DNA sequence: CCCGTGTGAGACAAAAGCGTCTCACGTGGT
DNA sequence: ACCACGTGAGACGCTTTTGTCTCACACGGG
């Protein structure tokens, strides 16, 4: 009976990442609920996006925790992180393109926390000699987001099997980030 | 006096790629022109997106031509292509997330032409033994788009210097795509 | 069984955005 | 100097979207 808030947000993210101009009515129908009910849970479009942001940050942070990125070799930590990030992929794919969140003063500090942890991971890899040092941690961080988004999009589109998600991303990202013996 | 159509489209892409819900008025102001003038050149939002699509396809195809991707080693061809793609980066970044273009029957065949040429390049690299074969050409193609977009965003945001654009993307993409001796 | 809670559907006004028009202005060419 | 053209600003009616409200209904617990 009662609406599952998280499930609604997930459906909203899936739709909005494909059609950012979708109306509240379309979001509601995509979530399988009425527009009135959607409005009962989220005051408006802005509140909806904020809720998506919050959920995304929580899931991404949970992924960082679950992957125990501080432990073991950095490349394996990245591999675990990519796998753990898959549930949050569509959320990330949408929110990364939602610049409204980053302009203005009320910017959610969760993003900088995420960035900091991610950057720290890449920096650790560089200091341990696992990652090449000619690619800045900030760029690796950015590329991580981008590849997660591309992966989510490719999976949703059927171009990549969902099972290959982690492998494709991790292999591409690590292959580029890992210092290779030649060169 | 007369408005530079291409420049308007470029400004529109830069804005829309970070705020897909931007109004025509915002687009006009971002381009430094009045809303009426924007309307004189593009009948509506849809026409604007179509024009962006057309320009993007033209520029991407020009980049493919300019990079002469059929010549020389595949990895060097990719490197040339990344460099040649920089002017079209923000356009690509926006349009890749605009799925409205891909659903429906009036889909521009330019995209499949681009995809085909890009896929052929990666496939050639695999057959020549330059690229690893466990990452599908389709995924490499997708990742290429994604990294171009991430790079454009990182540059626009000041996280990466514009001069490093090509290097960062090509190194990350190729490092992952190139078969390394270990493993 | 019955009542309370949460829901879907629809009506409704307000707001936002769009597309068109007019008009004054400034620039560039004649 | 003059004229023509393209522009910016703003007004206007229209459509779409939004946010709120009401009401009937289904479910679930007491």
Descriptive overview:
With 183 residues, chain A is mostly helical. Chain A is built from nine helices and no strands. Chain A has a domain at 55-177: Tetracycline Repressor, domain 2. Helix content of chain A is 66%, strand content 0%. Chain A is elongated and about 55 Å long. In chain A, 44% of the residues are buried. Chains A and B meet through helix 8 and helix 9 of A and helix 8 and helix 9 of B. Chain A binds a DNA duplex (30 and 30 nucleotides) through residues 1-3, 23-25, 33-37, 39-40, 43-45.
Q: How would you summarize this macromolecular structure in one to three sentences?
A:
Two copies of one chain form a homodimer. Chain A has 183 residues and is an all-alpha fold.
Layout of secondary structure:
Two copies of one chain form a homodimer.
Chain A: H1 5-18, H2 24-30, H3 35-41, H4 45-66, H5 74-85, H6 89-95, H7 109-127, H8 137-156, H9 165-177
The first copy, chain A, binds a DNA duplex (30 and 30 nucleotides) through helix 3.
- Going by helix content, strand content and strand pairing, the class of chain A is mainly alpha
Order of helices and strands of chain A: HHHHHHHHH
Determine the CATH superfamily of the domain at 55-177 in chain A: Tetracycline Repressor, domain 2
Largest interface, counted with CB-CB under 8 A?
A-B, 41 and 41 residues
Oligomer: homodimer
Label the CATH architecture of the domain at 55-177 in chain A.
Orthogonal Bundle
Average pLDDT of chain A, to the nearest integer?
A: 90
* Tally of alpha and pi helices of chain A: 9
Tell me the helix content of chain A: 55-70%
Radius of gyration of chain A: 18 Å
| Span of the ends, CA to CA of chain A | 61 Å
CATH topology of the domain at 55-177 in chain A: Tetracycline Repressor, domain 2
Query: What is the number of beta strands of chain A?
Result: 0
The low-confidence parts of chain A are none
Strand content of chain A: under 5%
CATH C-level class of the domain at 55-177 in chain A is Mainly Alpha
- Main sheet specs of chain A: none
Overall shape of chain A: elongated
């Amino acid at each position: 009976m009662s609406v599952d808030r998280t499930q609604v947000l997930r459906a909203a993210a899936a739709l909005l990442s494909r059609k950012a101009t979708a109306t509240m009515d379309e979001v509601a129908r995509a979530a399988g609920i009425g527009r009135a009910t959607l409005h009962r849970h989220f005051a408006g479009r802005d509140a909806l996006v904020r809720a998506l942001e919050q959920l995304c940050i929580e899931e991404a942070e949970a992924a960082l925790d679950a992957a125990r990125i501080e432990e073991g070799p950095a490349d394996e930590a990245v591999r675990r992180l990519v796998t753990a990030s898959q549930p949050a992929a569509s959320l990330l794919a949408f929110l990364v393109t939602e610049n409204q969140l980053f302009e203005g003063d009320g910017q959610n500090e969760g993003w900088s926390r995420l960035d900091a942890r991610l950057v720290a991971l890449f920096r650790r890899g560089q200091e341990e000699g696992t990652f090449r040092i000619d690619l800045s941690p900030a760029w690796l961080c950015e590329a991580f987001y981008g590849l997660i988004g591309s992966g989510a999009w490719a999976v949703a589109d059927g171009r990549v099997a969902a099972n290959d998600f982690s492998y494709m991303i991790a292999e591409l990202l690590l292959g580029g980030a890992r210092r290779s013996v030649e060169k």
